[in-house]
Design brief:
Length: 232
């Protein structure tokens, strides 16, 4: 039921202004604070992705084990193929976060490639004003904890996924042309396929449920929501 390749959408909004010189400037060394914040954001994405797959029953419950995160129980996969897929994806996300080259991560649930059922969106905003790091991270982690506690309630209004269908998922990363090229040339990711994908036209009928309000670290704002596509 899981994904294979990671599909990368190159943002048309930014690719025409991106140059190799600008990309190199963006590849600065992250500070200790930025590394800590990136670690927290990547861990958040891992927990949410696992929670989505568990709560939407894309895999048998038996492949998940309870782990504690932020002093609450969360379900994390022990299925190696799925874990490798998520880990390799987040390895690329970590690098792009460091260079501020990923704008959005989407976990799309679908029956057919051109027929999405739900899209779980992680929006990243690098333009927000920074606050003191310690204050920010404490607030971020507490809001994240509260969001995970409320995840069941926030998802209960979603329509049931078709039980007879083979529902799959894939992960999309929205980035720039130069960042996509850099991923392909990264020796740490050579064994993992990233496939360039053209952005599809927005669906006419979608509903949106906020899963995580906009939270701010000192380097990036994060917002998580689910878009449910119109279906019978």
């Amino acid at each position: 039921m899981g994904g294979g390749d990671v599909n990368v959408i190159v943002s048309k909004h930014t690719q025409h202004t991106e140059t190799s010189t600008n990309a190199n400037k963006g590849a600065k060394m992250a500070t200790a604070t930025e590394k800590q914040e990136i670690d927290v954001i990547v861990e958040m994405m891992e927990i949410y992705i696992n929670s989505i797959l568990y709560k939407r029953k894309l895999y048998p419950e038996a492949i998940f084990r309870i782990r504690k995160a932020y002093n609450i129980p969360v379900y994390i996969s022990i299925y190696s193929a799925l874990n490798d897929y998520i880990a390799q994806t987040l390895k690329a996300v970590r690098e792009m976060l460091r260079n501020r080259k990923v704008r959005r991560l989407e976990v799309i649930l679908f029956e057919e490639e051109d027929n999405p059922l739900e899209s779980y969106v992680f929006n990243l905003d690098y333009q927000r004003l920074a606050r003191e790091s310690d204050e920010n991270m404490s607030a971020f982690e507490e809001e994240l904890r509260q969001s995970l506690l409320a995840l069941d309630a926030r998802m209960k209004n979603l329509k049931r996924l078709p039980e007879s269908a083979d529902v799959k998922f894939k992960i999309l990363l929205h980035t720039t042309e130069s960042a996509y090229v850099r991923i392909g040339n990264d020796p740490r990711l050579q064994s993992f396929p990233f496939v360039k994908e053209v952005a599809v036209q927005e669906a006419d009928e979608k509903s949106r449920i906020e899963l995580l309000p906009v939270l701010q670290t000192s380097c990036v704002g994060v917002n998580v929501f689910v878009e449910e596509y119109g279906r019978m």
